[in-house]
Protein 1
Amino acid sequence: MSRAEQKERTRRAIINAAFSQLSADKSFASLSLREVAREAGIAPTSFYRHFADMDELGLTLVDEAGLMLRQLMRQARQRIEKNGSVIRTSIETFMEFVTGNSNVFRLLLRERSGTSAAFRGAVAREIQHFVAELAEYLRKETICPDELARAQAEAMVILVFHAGADALDAPPEQYSYLTSRTITQLRWLTHGAAGSGRKPKG
Amino acid sequence: MSRAEQKERTRRAIINAAFSQLSADKSFASLSLREVAREAGIAPTSFYRHFADMDELGLTLVDEAGLMLRQLMRQARQRIEKNGSVIRTSIETFMEFVTGNSNVFRLLLRERSGTSAAFRGAVAREIQHFVAELAEYLRKETICPDELARAQAEAMVILVFHAGADALDAPPEQYSYLTSRTITQLRWLTHGAAGSGRKPKG
DNA sequence: AGAATGAGCGAACAGTTGTAAGCTAAAGTG
DNA sequence: CACTTTAGCTTACAACTGTTCGCTCATTCT
């Protein structure tokens, strides 16, 4: 096996070890370098061959989580073309992601208000991707100033994220309630915004 | 000084020490018993005379934070009577609290999605007080099913909380923008909800 | 007065942590 | 082939952590 190949392999082992140790009871901040190294199957000091410190690993995790989120968006758009209902499909796709990759979502959720400014910034950037795409969509579908489209998109993303957070602590039989509640909230937003100076296009 | 009096005094010293160590870079989880004891001016072992462990202290902090929040609500209501504008006054009062007691707000913000289920539950309960009061208000002012009033109140509280979180990382000159953005979002919600089967009362 | 209580202390323990230094051995290079 | 590079290892250290134990001594109770 080539050297670079092997290096990449243990780098992934470290990343996977970190992800797998995240849980409802364990945040990234409470991971230790040694524990991660142990699970990755390397000596503690070998960790430094791949990351300068735990922060660098953390930022990598946030990046990867953001990537997954964006792939999710693409998947949602495909579903929308077949399905029709934009809001419902988007939320359902998102809820599936949250419940299926809860550790990944938890990372974003926690580091959004965590103790590292760098982490908070990284998460905020990932979320802004969401907001920007949604705002773009709103601008296409309606006639309204950029500023308002953005404020609307932000509100929507916040509400959806929060529904995801609720789902983490809720029993599965409540998922459909959380979904429909969020749909209602988002419809209120769109209707309210449409009534305040915005017009449906065409 | 009486015994009970003195005990209460050092108990407060511990609580205050814990609050004062919370900051943008230090979450409750990263506080150590020894550090807190040091700042409170007692030996590490004396801590146990007042709390069984750090978790018990943490729950106390959350309780106190919730108390401050409810006092804030009362203060807001007084202002509303003089001022008139419900939404604007509420949000402005809240933003003042957030910027003036940022460590307290940060505690709630972080433990809401933290690693301890007990903490998450405690914070959720405090926030539900907010939601319940607001939902009650909405029911009085409008005719709508309890269920919808609650969903609307929840959405509003989420958006206001999020604005507070944004303020923590924003320079002060952006506070007024954050406030007005949130006002817009809340007005959309009320208008949208009013349009969907709800009617203004009287 | 005398006994009981209990807040606070110092010393000590076992466990963990991050990280530095220096070695080995395999892969890459000329 | 000899030479360099480097991922990974072992050992080691100093700094912390939470917690147990047994003591003191001022307050409180009888």
Protein 2
Amino acid sequence: MADFKTSPGTRDILSPDSARWRAFQGVFESTVEAAGYDYIIPPMFEDLDVFLRLGEATDVVTKEMYDFHDKGGRHIALRPEQTASVCRAFVEHRPTTPWKVWYSGPNFRYEKPQQGRYRQFDQVGIEALGVDDAFLDAEVIALAAKFYSALGLRKIELSINSLGDSGDRDKYAKKLSEYFAKHESKLTAESKATLLRNPLRVLDSKREPDQEIIIGAPAIRETISNESREHFEAVLSALDALKISYKINDRLVRGLDYYRRTTFEFVSTALEAAHTAIGGGGRYDGLVEALGGPPTAGIGFALGLDRTLLACDAESVFAAPLKEVDVFVVDTVDGTHAHELCHQIRTHGFSADRAYDLRSIKAQMKAADRSGARIALIIGSNEVENESVMLRPMGSGEQYVVPRQDILNEIAKYTIKTNI
RNA sequence: GUGGGCGUAGCUCAGUUGGUUAGAGCGCCAGGUUGUGGUCCUGGAGGCCGGGGGUUCGAGACCCCUCGUCCACCCCA
């Protein structure tokens, strides 16, 4: 038994899962780059204060932050998400708007790990700053939907809501507070506690006794301003124009305090655990200002790699790509031929692998099979003597002799493309 | 953070009411096929039964603690 294990909530992603991750990120990249989003790589840690803007009352900030003092005395936190970092970057660099960026990478939250919930977890996402246009809201949502569909996911549901502007939100929180206070005796103890911290979040309770009260709660729609209402309706009709189906959910409030107006969430109906929410986002029009920048509109979404991959598993789509290599060199003489031939093949833009330690031809062929090689090149004493190579297309059951100097041209017949 | 289930070979799991040298399948290695993989057959390697303490003549099985994992709550991706 090994002495060291990964820390709770973290793990190694090995092949073939690692290849699947990379493919996942690749699909995301091409989806959003096709819509004009540029890649941004924010730091993994920064000043704690940046993340406090996520909401003083949220668990993400109060309980789950990985924070520490560095040797220079700075109060640092590992990023729990990337939206705040992107907004900080916007304030710091003042790019021209619209500023549309995408990211991919790990975030950190100190939570009790479960399946689909890790302390180091990867998200991909996009953020678009400086535009108030409802078409942008619809574009962002449409890109997420397009991405899911590109992965092959079908059992995805989109919930959408509007939280109104910041004034609306405060008004609504107060109204909800009063409503729940009236029915406090019927609420669960957990919800009573939540009520004090953040009344909106009581709507998210899944506890049975709370449901009756929640159903009767006032909807935010009754509170929001005309401007917010018009914006929301424009977003909905822009989604209709793209034939993107959605469900308006009055109770959708989401966990981070910075959300304003449009909010949305994607749920996989193929998943059964509690972690069916595989992605979400919304507008955060006040966030840039809160970080010291000019009043700037913003919208984006993030989705979790693990959970989305779990949903892919549940729907049996987006399998890990097969391992493959152009050529596998089998050398039963002394290994020097495999050594030099592999180098030559690689230099000419093909991929090549080989076996080591001069194992039996049978063992080397087995390794060739496992490597996913298109062809095996076999070099034994006969081939060395004739300055030739035995070429065996894997899967064909046939093989033929190729003069050593013709080998690169022959390999080219079997490879679809050359990688550098 | 609270409550519950589960930790046995690299992986998935069996292991009767505690009883000698702890098993299977897959994977890995070797041989059958002295120059040939993907099928088949045979053999082999690999375990302080998560860790610590206790009960007992005797513990993988029972008790306590601890760590890990999974589930629910919480929260969220």
